[in-house]
Request: fold
Amino acid sequence: MKILIADDHPLTLQGTKGVVESYGYRVTDTCSNGSSALNQIQLHQPDIAILDINMPGLDGIDVAKKVQEGKFHTKVILLTMHNEITLYNKAKEYGVYGYILKEYAVSELKKCLEEVLKGNHYTSDSLNKDLVSNGTKGNEELAKLTFSERKIVELITQQKTTKQIAELLFLSEKTIEGHRSNIIEKLGLPKEKNVLLKWAMKNNQQP
Amino acid sequence: MKSRLTCIMPIAIWLLLLCRCGNPSPDETIFLPNDKADTDSTIQWLEVHTNFHEANYYAVFDTYYANKLNKKNYGQAASALNAVVNQEIYFLFFDSTFQVTLQTFDTLYADQLPWHKTLFVEEYKGYRLMDQGEYRKAIAIFRKSAAHKPFDYDTYIDLANLYNDMAFCYSAIGEQEQALLCNHQALSYFNHTENIAGKGGTYDNIALVHLFTKNYAEAEVYFDKAMQSYQETGDTGNMFITLHNRILLYQETGDARKFKLIDSTYHFFKSSNIEDPSLEVALSSFYVEKLLYEGKIAEAKQILDKMELTAEKLQSPSADNDYLISLAQYELKSNQGIINKKLIENALRATEESEHYQNQLAFCEVLKKDALLHGDYKKALEYSEKEKTAANKLANQEMVAKTMELNKRHETEKKEQYIALQAESILNKNITIALLLVILITFGLVVAVIYYRHKQKKNRAETQRAFLFTRQLLAKTEEERKRIAGDLHDSVSHELLILKNAIQKNDSVAGAKINDIINDIRIISRNLHPIMFEKVGLAASIDQLVERAQSMHNLMVTADITYDASFLSTSDELQVYRILQEALSNTIKYAEAFAAKITLFTKNDILHIQIKDNGKGFDVEEKLSGSTAFGLHNIIERSKAIGGLAKIYSDKSGTIITIEIKKPL
Reply:
C-alpha cells in the first residue's frame, strides 16, 4: 500500500502527510510540484496519489490527465482550495477518484481514502452542497427542480402561456414543453389538464 | 501618384511664366550700351571732342590706322575711322586727306565687315553732301543705310541718327511731312535706348519742322525739349545749334526777344571756348545782323572779317553762304549796296538748284533790298516773287495742313499705342497675378495635403499607440488581478487553513468562521480572475458565469456557445469573458430583465458574440455621451483592443450587444 502526496505548500504537505499517516497509511513519496509527482508515479506506481491542483509546473489536473493517458493503476485524489464546478468536471473527465476541499480534509480525507481504496468515487460533501446551494430555502418540493424549471414555474404562476414563457426566457416552446413535463414528473403530479398551473397557484410563493 | 501630380503642376506653371518672360514683344525692349571696356585706348582718345583740335590728331589716327591695316585688323581700323568721322560731323569740318583714306577703306575693305560696322561711311558721305547743300543726294544715301534693321544699342543709335539727319535734309528742302516721319522714326529708335542726347537732336529737328510749317508754339515746345535733353547730358555744342534754331524761330515770328537771344547766345558761345568754326560762322552771322540792326556798323565789319577767315578755313558751302548773306546785309546797311552782286546771284542760283530754301530766302531778301536801293523796281519785284516762291516751297499751305494732320495723327497714334500698351501691360499683369494666384493656391493645396497626410499619419500612429496601450493596459490589469487572486487563494487561504487546523481541535466555532473567510476569499478571488481560465477554457468559463448569474442573482441566462478553442489567443478569450461579464453585470444591475441569452458562433472566420436581455433598455447615445457609461465603454474598448467591433442596440423591450471579431492572422 503506497501513497504519494504532492503539494507546493510545505506546511500543508506535512499536515496532509501527518493526517494520512495518522490513519495508519504509509506515505511513500512527497513532492512539491507536479512534474516530480508524475515522475514518482511513473517510477513507484503508488496505489493512491493525493494531489493539490495549484502547483508549479504541472498542476494536479495535468498530472491526473497524464495518469489517465499512461494507464497507470494509481488512483488520483485531488485535495484543493478550489470548489469550482468547472474544475470538478475537468477532474471527472480525467478519471479522478476523489475531490476534496482542503478546509474539510481533516474530516473527509479518512472516508475518502477508504472509499477510493474500495474503488469508489468520492466528492467532498461541501462541494456537492456548494453546487446545489442555489436552491430555495423552505420549499422542499421546489428544491427538487432546476433553476430553469423553477423560473418556468414562476412564470406559470404569472399565468403566462408557453409561448410567452419561451420568449421571456430566450428558449424555444419545445424546450418549455419539455421542462413542463419534467417538472410534472419531478413533483409527481397527476396527468390532468392545467395541473401545473393549479399546483403553482396553490404554492404561490415567489422564489 | 496624386501627390506627385500636385507637385508637378506649379513647376509647369513656373515654366509657362518663364517662357512668357523670355519672349516679350520686341517693341518693348530697351537696349543698354554695349560694353566698351575692351575698346582700344587710342580709339577712346580719338573719340574725345576736345582732342580733335590737337595738332597731332590726324597724325595719331594715321599711325594707328596704318598699324591696324598692316595687321589686317579691319574691325579696329573701322572703329578708328568711325571715331574721326564722328568728330568731323560734330564739328562740320571735313579733312580732305582723311576723305581719301575713308574712300580707300570703303572700296578695299568695307565689304569684309558687317553692315553696322561701316554705317559711318555712308553717314560721312551723306554729311558731305548735306554740307554742300545737296540734300536730295544726301537723303538718297541715308535712305539706303536706314533700310537696315537695328538689333542692339549701337545699331539703334546709329540708325536713329541717320533718320535724324534725313529729317533735317527733308526739312531743309521743304518736305516737312517726310521730315516729320523721319523724326518720329528716329524717336522710336531712340526709345529703345536710353540715349537722351540723340533724342535732343530729334526734338530740335521736330521743332524746325514746326517752325517751317508755322506751327510756332509747338516749335517752342520742342526747342525746350531739345534744350532739356542737352542740359541733362551736358552737350553744350548741340545746345548752341538749338539756340541757333530758336533764333530762327524768333526771326520768323518777329519776336522781340530775337536780338537779346542772339546777343546772349553769341557771347555765351565765345565764353564757352568751344572750337566749332561752322557754329561760329552761323552764330556770327546772326550777331552781325544784330549789330547792323543796332547801327554798330564798324563792329559788324570786325566780326565779318573774322567770319571770312573762318569760312575760308572751313571750305564749307553753308558757311560760305552764311558769310555771303551777312556780308550783303552789311553792305546794304552801310548804304553802299552789294559790291559783288554776281557772287550773291551765283550763290542764289546754287541754292535754287539744291532747293536750300532757307538760304534762298536770305539771298533773295538781300538782292531785293539791293535792287530797291538802286531803284531797280523790276528786279526788286522779281526777287520778291522769288522770295515768296521760296517761302511757299519751304512751307506751302497744303504742306502745312498735311504736316499738322500728320503730327496730329502721330500724336493720336502715340496715344493709341500708349493705351494699347497700358491695356496690354494690365492684361499681362492680370495674367501674372492670376498665375501667381494659381501657384499660390496650388502651393497652399500641396501644403494642406501634405499637412493633412502628415496629420493623418500621426493620427493613425496615435490610434495605433492608443490601441497598443489599451491592449497592454488590459493585459497588465489581468495579470495583476490574476496575481492578486493567486496570492489570495494560495497564500492567504493556506495560512487560514493552517490556522484552522491548529485551532480546530479546541474550537469548532472558530473553525467554521475560518471556513467562511476562506469562502469569502474564494469569491473575491473568483471575481478578480476566473479560476484556472487557461485550464478550463472560454466556453466552460462562460458556463460558470451563467451558472453564477442564475444562482446568485436569480437571472435566467441561457448560453448557446459554439466556439473553437484555437480561434483567439487565451488573453483575447479572457477579454471576451470580461466583456460578457460586464454585459451580464449591467443586465443584472440595471435592466430589470427576466432573462438573458449569450450566443457565440463562428462564421466566415468571424467570431460573432451576442448578449441580449429583455430588460427595460436605455438610450444608447445619451448613455454613451454621459459620464456613467463606464461599463459600456469598457465593452467597446475591450472589443477594439482585440480587433473587434462592438455594437449596442437598446430599446424598451431590451438590449442587444453584438461583437464581431475577425480571426487574427
About this structure: The longest strand of chain B covers residues 595-603. The CA atoms of residues 17 and 113 of chain B lie 39 Å apart. Chain B has a mean pLDDT of 84.
